[in-house]
Structure formats: structure tokens, C-alpha cells
């Protein structure tokens, strides 16, 4: 065996080990959601040889506490489980999609203005936008609570969507601006000479060329909103709930519902995965844009 082949096999082995290191926790979490309570705590751990059950998913998604209770009653007890989380998942999807839409809508126009127009204090304004992203959320949690309380926005969808939109604006503005900066300014100048308005230039020329960057920003905004915990915890009570906050209720003084928690965590990845698939075409182009520059 030649040296180059041995090196190739060694690299393949290392890549496989690194991949296994990253994928094993995901596999473990998935198997926990498919095990019974007895098998979850079995020693040694049951990695492959276990009986698959969907009881945790039935309780989390359908609200069916157990098949035995449903059979005894003669009907299926929909929505009656202690860990029934389908309304919470729908709340999370709505909040994430709405906040992503508003964040991207505002960010795209702001990024174009910051990239193409010149005004006094522009660099200071850009740095201020960046600095808001550096600020820890816990530093503004209490002031945000008091402001939202005065405007009657506590425990409302509007309040959570607003705070998630504000949270995602700095990153999405700077990300989309970087894509617009990569486009030659001559595109705008030629269109202006031909009599096109700024709005027409943005709509017909700039936006189609940075669609990949917008898709990349949208994915990040969706994921950040989907996983945000602190603001939802401090600004909501009972009317509005999201998956990160409700998943904390699975840990109680009497124990942790590991099966239901794993089922919720596994099911919670599906909406994010679907959203990424929908923008995959533009996302790949956005992430590789500029990589072939000399």
C-alpha cells in the first residue's frame, strides 16, 4: 500500500470518527424518544436492541397519555396529556415565521440604504447596529419587561414577535449589507443614468442578485427566534408559549420526563428543517457567493 493510500484511509477514518462524535448525541436523543421509561434508564444503555414505542410522541403531539387509558375509556383522549405540546409548536412556528418576515423586510431596505447611500455618521450608525448584537439579552430583559407592561404587550403574540424582530435585525442587516457591498456600484449608476428610481433599482436589480444572502439571513433569523428562551420566559405567562420555554416544564421536583422531552426536541427540529429545505436553493448560493473571487 502506497503512502498516499494510507494517508487517504487515515483521513477517511478520522472524518468518520469526527462525524460519529457529532451525530451520536443526535442518535441518542432520537432513541430516547422511542424508548419506554424502563429502557431509557437501562444499564448498560440500550443503543440498538430496544423495543420502539411512539407513546412519547403520542403524548407530546396528540395529547394521548397512554393506550391503556384510551382503551379503558373506549375513546381516544385527545389533548388530555400533561405534556401536550402541539399548540406550543404552532405558536413557535407562527412567531418564528412572523418575526423572520418582519426582520428580513426591514433589514433588506436598511442594508441597501447603508450600502449604497452616503450620509453623515454612517460608519458610527453601522457600528451602533453591530454593538446592539453584542449586548447580552439579560441586560435589557427587565427594561423590556417594563416597557411592554406599559404598552400592554405582555403575554401577547405581538410583543414576542416585536422583541424577536428587534433581536434579529442587527445580524440580518449586516449580513445582507455584506452581500450588497459585493455588487459593483456601477450597476446602480448605470440604472440611475437611464432614469430608473432607487426603488426600481432595488426591486429589479439588487434584490434578485442578493436573494441568496436574504435566504441565508432568513434561516438565521428563523433559528434564533425558534430557539430563543429568555425574552419569551420574561415577557409571557400562559397565553403564549414557545418550545424552549415549555420544554423546561418537563423538569419537575419529582423527576424529568426524558421520553416526552426527547420527543418534543425531535419533533421541534422538523419545522426548522422544512424551512431550510424551502430556501435551500437560494441558501447554498448565498453561502457560496463571493467564494470564487480572485
Provide an overview of this structure.
Helix content is 70%, strand content 1%. The chain is built from 15 helices and two strands. Strand 1 and strand 2 (255-256) form a beta hairpin. The relative contact order is 0.12. A two-stranded antiparallel sheet has the order 1-2. It is an all-alpha fold and 294 residues long. The chain has helices spanning 3-33, 37-40, 55-62, 67-73, 86-116, 122-134, 141-150, 157-181, 186-193, 198-209, 211-227, 230-235, 243-247, 258-278, 280-288, and strands at residues 251-252, 255-256.
In a few lines, what is going on in this structure?
The protein is an all-alpha fold and 294 residues long. Helices cover 70% and strands 1% of the residues.
Give a count of the beta strands, DSSP E runs of length 2 or more: 2
Radius of gyration: 24 Å
* Strand content range: under 5%
Order of H and E elements: HHHHHHHHHHHHHEEHH
Alpha-beta classification: mainly alpha
Number of helices: 15
Spatial strand order of the main sheet: 1-2
Distance between the termini: 38 Å
Low-confidence stretches: 70-80, 290-294
Amino acid at each position: 500500500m502506497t503512502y498516499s493510500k494510507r494517508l487517504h484511509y487515515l483521513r477517511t477514518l478520522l472524518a468518520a470518527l469526527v462525524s460519529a462524535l457529532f451525530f451520536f448525541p443526535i442518535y441518542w436523543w432520537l432513541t430516547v424518544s422511542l424508548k419506554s421509561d424502563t429502557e431509557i434508564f437501562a444499564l448498560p444503555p440500550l443503543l440498538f436492541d430496544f423495543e420502539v414505542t411512539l407513546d412519547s410522541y403520542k403524548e407530546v403531539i396528540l395529547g394521548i397519555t397512554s393506550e391503556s387509558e384510551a382503551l379503558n375509556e373506549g375513546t381516544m383522549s385527545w389533548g388530555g396529556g400533561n405534556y401536550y405540546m402541539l399548540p406550543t409548536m404552532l405558536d413557535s412556528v407562527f412567531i418564528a415565521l412572523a418575526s423572520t418576515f418582519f426582520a428580513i423586510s426591514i433589514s433588506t431596505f436598511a442594508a441597501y440604504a447603508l450600502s449604497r447611500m452616503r450620509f453623515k455618521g454612517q460608519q458610527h450608525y453601522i457600528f451602533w447596529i453591530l454593538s446592539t448584537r453584542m449586548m447580552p439579552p439579560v441586560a435589557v430583559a427587565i427594561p423590556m419587561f417594563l416597557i411592554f407592561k406599559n404598552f400592554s404587550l405582555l403575554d401577547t403574540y405581538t410583543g414576542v414577535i416585536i422583541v424577536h424582530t428587534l433581536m434579529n435585525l442587527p445580524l440580518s442587516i449586516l449580513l445582507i449589507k455584506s452581500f450588497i457591498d459585493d455588487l459593483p456600484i456601477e450597476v446602480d449608476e448605470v440604472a440611475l443614468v437611464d432614469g430608473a428610481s432607487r426603488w426600481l433599482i432595488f426591486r429589479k436589480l439588487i434584490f434578485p442578485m442578493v436573494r441568496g444572502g436574504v435566504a441565508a439571513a432568513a434561516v438565521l433569523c428563523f433559528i434564533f427566534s425558534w430557539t430563543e428562551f429568555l425574552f419569551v420566559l420574561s415577557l409571557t405567562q400562559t397565553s403564549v408559549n414557545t418550545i424552549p420555554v415549555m420544554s423546561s416544564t418537563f423538569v419537575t421536583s419529582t423527576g424529568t420526563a426524558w421520553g416526552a422531552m426527547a420527543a418534543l426536541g425531535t419533533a421541534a427540529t422538523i419545522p426548522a428543517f422544512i424551512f431550510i429545505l424551502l430556501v435551500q436553493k437560494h441558501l447554498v448560493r448565498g453561502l457560496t457567493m463571493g467564494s470564487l473571487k480572485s
